[in-house]
Structure formats: C-alpha cells, structure tokens
Amino acid sequence: MKIKYKKIVSFVWYGGAWIFSAILCSITVFMLGSYYYTGSPTGFFKLVRTFSIVESRYAGEIDKEKLLNGALEGIVAKLSDKHSIYLDGDNYASFANQTSASYAGVGIYLGKNDQGPFVVEVVDDSPAKEAGIQRGDVIIAIDGKPANEMDIEQIAQDIRGPVGSTVTLVLSHKGTEYTKELVRSQIQLKTVGGQLIPGTDIGYIRVAIFSEKTGKEFTDLYQSLRQQGMGKMILDLRNNPGGLVDQAVTVSSNFVPPHSTIVSYVDRSGKETDFTADGTVDRIPMVVLINENTASAAEIVAGAVQDLKIGTIVGVKSYGKGTVQGIYPIDEGNAVKLTVAKYKTANGRFIDGVGIEPDVVVPLQANDTTDKQFEKAYEILNQ
C-alpha cells in the first residue's frame, strides 16, 4: 500500500509539474503576443481581466458570446474606417452573398441622396414588390434603427438576413410615412439588363452590381446587341455599389483598347498590382451614366472610360470609394472585412473620398418626371 501511495504521489507531482509548465508556457506566449500587438506585456491581460470582472461581478445575466463579439467588433471599429468591420454569424453570411447572384433579402436596390437612403428599384416577384414598396420611397428606419445614420453598406446588411426571418421597414412615399414588416426570401438577381433603343442603333445597358456572373451576363448581352446592330452604347452605372473587381475588368474588356490597365492596387508597403483587360479593337462610341451612389468597382469602370478617353461620363460626381477590402475568416461563422489597399484608376488617380467628376454635369432629383441624364446621353450620341 505504501508503494502504491508513492507511485500515486509521484504521478500527481509530475503531472502537476507538466500542467504548471504548460500554463507558464501559455502565459509567456500570451505576454509576447500582447507585447507584439500593443507594445505592452499587459495589453491582452486587460481584456481578460475585464471579462473576468464582468463574469464574476455583474448582477445581470451574461451572454458570453455576445460579449466576445462586442469586443471583437470594438477592435475593428477603432480603426475608424467605415469599410473595415467585424462580421459575425448572419452578417458574415449576408456579406458573403452580396457578390452572389442570389441572396436572402426583400428585393430592393438602394441609393442615397440629400433626403437619405431611398429605393432605387424593386425586384419583381420579391417581398418588397408584393408589399407595395415603390421606386423613390425613402427608408426612414430598419428594425427601429434610424437609416440616415447608416451608410449604404450597413443598410443593405441590416435589410438582408436568413430566409424566413422578418425585417420591419419604416418608409416614406411622397411625404407619407408607412411601415412594412417583410419576410425575407431568396432573391435571384440578374445584374445586367438592356436593349436596343427602338428605331436607333443605340444600345442601353444597365449594370446593377458587379457579382460573380456579371462579366458573362454583360458580354453575352453586349455581343447580342452588337449582332442586332448596336453602333453606340449608353452604359448605366448609376446606383451601382460596386462588387468584384475581376468582373469589372471583364466588363471593361468589351470596350477598352487591347491590354489596357483598368486599375492598380497599392498596398500598405507601396507595392502596386495592375489589373489589365484583354480589350478589343472593335470599339463603339459610348456614354457612361454615374451618380452619387456609383461606387467602388463601378467607379473603376467609369474611371477607365474617362482616363482612356473612349467615352463621355454624364451625371454627377460619384461616391468616391477607392479602397480595397479583404475578407479574413476567423472561424466557420465569423470574419473580418479589412481595408488592405487603395486603388488608382487607369491614369493613376486616387479617388477615395474624391470620386469621379463627370465630363458633363447633369443633376437629377428623385421627383423629376423625366430622366435628364439619360436624355443628355442620348443627345450626345446623336450629335
């Protein structure tokens, strides 16, 4: 019995030494990591200590997952960059679907002007269409949160969500406020549409967003219209929030000169990466329509047309989003969207916070009865 006792004590002692060593090693790594990120060996300990105090002292109920997500959101929020955000759960899934041709939502395209966020277009056979929401309606609140305090990205993210879930929108139609509770459904998008204007050789093509299928959709429609006799083109990028840059390059290949650099990325170290379009020698006169909600990849296309002098830009100054974001998964359900570079247009212009100035300025109000920007584009191509 005595021998057994010694063996047990010996085992426990060595086990205790191993556990202590592991803890000591973890603390050392933790301190080194903390020093690397904060310049202080106690930086991360403050975070852990705060969690510990809240967990042991707070009088109410605690949702640990919610606390953790809040802390992670705060880290990214302190960058003071509205395009860098922490994506958790449904927000991650929703963002991942933004560049897909299918997403869970209510079926509206968004814009923003002096009156605030508004409905640019309503998708057919969508919850929004069935609820009677109309083009031009102003969005006042989303689930009780004031919409005018959010940017377009956040508004879109809040309106989207899992299929079958609900979202409550407060809107205004011609000054009359109304409320709609909508059940989200799967929305199938066609990101490109257009036609040959009857009795003319002018084609009209609208690109709503640059998603994973936009390049092919645009090329198919462009070639079809060319076969029908299109000799001039109006490219409508108004209220296009951007999307995938490779799709913007593919779209541009249909009308820019061969081997044209469309955009260049400049990362934090100053390294530049060029994106070049195959291009074509078979080019036609064109006008590009832009407005204050034309952003990101859409500005890349408009900037290329302007810089390469292959068309006329009509409308008002674009949004001015000239930064590039990367998505970095943390685990299966969470990620960080982080600004990793700025981009330059074909001629080397940085447009972040500046935007694209149109060659011909034509303002357009939501209550205008005619599309003056389209009319100006049509006039230019008929000169």
Automatic annotation (TrEMBL):
Belongs to the peptidase S41A family. Gene3D superfamilies: 2-enoyl-CoA Hydratase, Chain A, domain 1 (3.90.226.10), 2.30.42.10, 3.30.750.44. It comes from Megasphaera paucivorans. One of its GO terms (biological process) is proteolysis. GO terms for molecular function: endopeptidase activity; serine-type peptidase activity. Keywords: Hydrolase, Membrane, Protease, Serine protease, Transmembrane, Transmembrane helix. This is Carboxyl-terminal processing protease. Residues 92-174 form the PDZ domain. The chain crosses the membrane at residues 12-37. Signal peptide: none annotated. InterPro entries: ClpP/crotonase-like_dom_sf, CtpA/B_N, PDZ, PDZ_6, PDZ_sf, Peptidase_S41A, Tail-specific_protease. The keyword Cell cycle does not apply. One of its GO terms (cellular component) is outer membrane-bounded periplasmic space. It holds the Pfam family PDZ_6. It comes from the Bacteria. PANTHER family: CARBOXY-TERMINAL PROCESSING PROTEASE CTPA (PTHR32060:SF30), TAIL-SPECIFIC PROTEASE (PTHR32060).
